[in-house]
């Protein structure tokens, strides 16, 4: 491709789509590249309750993303389905390459997102969104007065377990070791919480049920004993939350952009990376809260920064 865009947005999750909306509305020549379906992680979320302005009577990830996509199209952003496997950010014109095409732009907004590190047990994929979750802030309300299990033992796992106690009847932390890895101050709060119990030296081996999560098998790694946990008959189901880390989709930019030890891209508050005219938004960057609303805000900020970089008045 010989066309040089004002901005190329890599990824069509909430951050990328918000950037596309703002860039298109500012009359910038905009290209959004997405290798899969729009929406990223939110596209497989059945119920959303905490996005401002959503349909109060009920909103799913796909329905919210569909409207975002329509807005982007309304303001003229071009779309391409492609997988980028190499980038060159060394010159004023940034180059993104796929197996068959080359794309050029004055600015690039990286919105490639992140994914939850899977628990790694049988049945996990089948029950994602049907009892299995990776975000307490997103899904805790759906488990009001039910029993839930949290897999993990680090800071985020224990903090999310405590958050879940505001909604769930009981929270059990499943950890493969005999002590938590979380900071001592966080551990003390968890041990003092009467709603929290523990399965030590344990891993989840299998999840099952009839369309919704109703049972699981938990193995003690020291004794080899396998116990089957079943949902309370009146509840009909329980929840399993995996908090063993997230993985940013940033491998493409290793050695090019500044990242932390986990691979999250460093930006300033205006989404600038260490390379001029290259921005990162949403879950792929270092941030304290990974939600649809914060990803959309990031995208808007980055697009406005692009517009100002191309204007005479900033």
Automatic annotation (TrEMBL):
GO terms for molecular function: thioredoxin-disulfide reductase (NADPH) activity. GO terms for cellular component: cytoplasm. It is an enzyme of class 1 (oxidoreductase). It comes from the Bacteria. Binds 1 FAD per subunit. Pfam families: Pyr_redox_2. GO terms for biological process: removal of superoxide radicals. The keyword Ribonucleoprotein does not apply. It catalyses: [thioredoxin]-dithiol + NADP(+) = [thioredoxin]-disulfide + NADPH + H(+). Homodimer. Belongs to the class-II pyridine nucleotide-disulfide oxidoreductase family. Residues 5-299 form the FAD/NAD(P)-binding domain. Keywords: Disulfide bond, FAD, Flavoprotein, NADP, Oxidoreductase, Redox-active center. InterPro entries: FAD/NAD-bd_sf (IPR036188), FAD/NAD-binding_dom (IPR023753), Ferredoxin-NADP_redctase_2 (IPR050097), Pyr_nucl-diS_OxRdtase_2_AS (IPR008255), Thioredox_Rdtase (IPR005982). This is Thioredoxin reductase. Its EC number is 1.8.1.9. Its cofactor is FAD.
């Amino acid at each position: 491709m010989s066309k040089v865009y004002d901005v190329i947005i890599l990824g069509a999750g909430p951050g990328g789509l918000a950037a596309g909306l703002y860039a298109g509305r500012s009359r910038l020549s905009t290209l959004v590249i997405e290798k899969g379906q729009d929406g990223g992680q939110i596209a497989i979320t059945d119920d959303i309750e905490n996005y401002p302005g959503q349909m109060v009577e009920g909103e799913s990830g796909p329905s919210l993303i569909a409207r975002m996509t329509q807005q982007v199209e309304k303001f003229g952003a071009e779309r391409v389905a492609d997988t980028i496997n190499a980038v060159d950010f060394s010159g004023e014109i940034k180059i993104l390459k796929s197996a068959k095409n080359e794309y050029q732009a004055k600015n690039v907004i990286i919105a490639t997102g992140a994914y939850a590190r899977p628990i790694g047990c049988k049945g996990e994929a089948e029950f994602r969104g049907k009892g299995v979750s990776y975000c307490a802030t997103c899904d805790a309300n759906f488990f009001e007065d039910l029993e839930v299990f949290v897999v993990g033992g680090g800071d985020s796992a224990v903090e999310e377990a405590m958050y879940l106690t505001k909604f769930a009847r009981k929270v059990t932390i499943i950890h493969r070791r005999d002590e938590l890895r979380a900071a001592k101050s966080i551990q003390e709060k968890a041990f003092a919480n009467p709603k929290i119990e523990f399965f030590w030296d344990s891993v989840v081996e299998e999840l099952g049920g009839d369309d919704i999560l109703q049972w699981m098998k938990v193995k003690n790694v020291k004794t080899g004993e396998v116990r089957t946990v079943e949902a309370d008959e009146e509840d009909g189901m329980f929840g399993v939350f995996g908090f063993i880390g997230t993985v940013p989709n940033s491998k493409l930019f290793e050695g090019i952009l500044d990242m932390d030890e986990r691979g999250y891209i460093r930006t300033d508050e205006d989404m600038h990376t260490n390379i001029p005219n290259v921005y990162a938004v949403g879950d792929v960057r270092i941030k304290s809260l990974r939600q649809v609303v914060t990803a959309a805000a990031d995208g808007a900020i980055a697009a406005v920064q692009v517009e100002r970089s191309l204007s005479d008045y900033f």
